[in-house]
Amino acid sequence: MPFHGLIHFCGPAKFLLHTICEMIPHKTKRGATVLARLKHMNTRPFHGPIHFCAPAKFLWHTIYGMIPHKTKRGATVLARLKAYEGIPPPFTTRKRV
What we know:
Elements: E1 6-11, H1 17-29, E2 33-38, H2 55-66, H3 72-80, E3 81-84
Parallel strand pairs: 1-2, 2-3
Helix pairs in contact: 1-2
């Protein structure tokens, strides 16, 4: 059943990156647009060559590696995902999940 809507996900520090990245692609496959906001960086910088200091970019790159981004279906999932640090002005009045 397709879901057409906007989900504003506020990721607190208690969530693990793996848990967040499992949930978001499933919601975007069903047609939802997901806005993710992370508060803290959940890694250590010496654990790999690809490391972004920005938590939103780190989340985006993790989901990018989990989905088939070279297919049309994977490209639409990435198009529906938007990740920010903080809350941008158009989304300050929306309910957060």
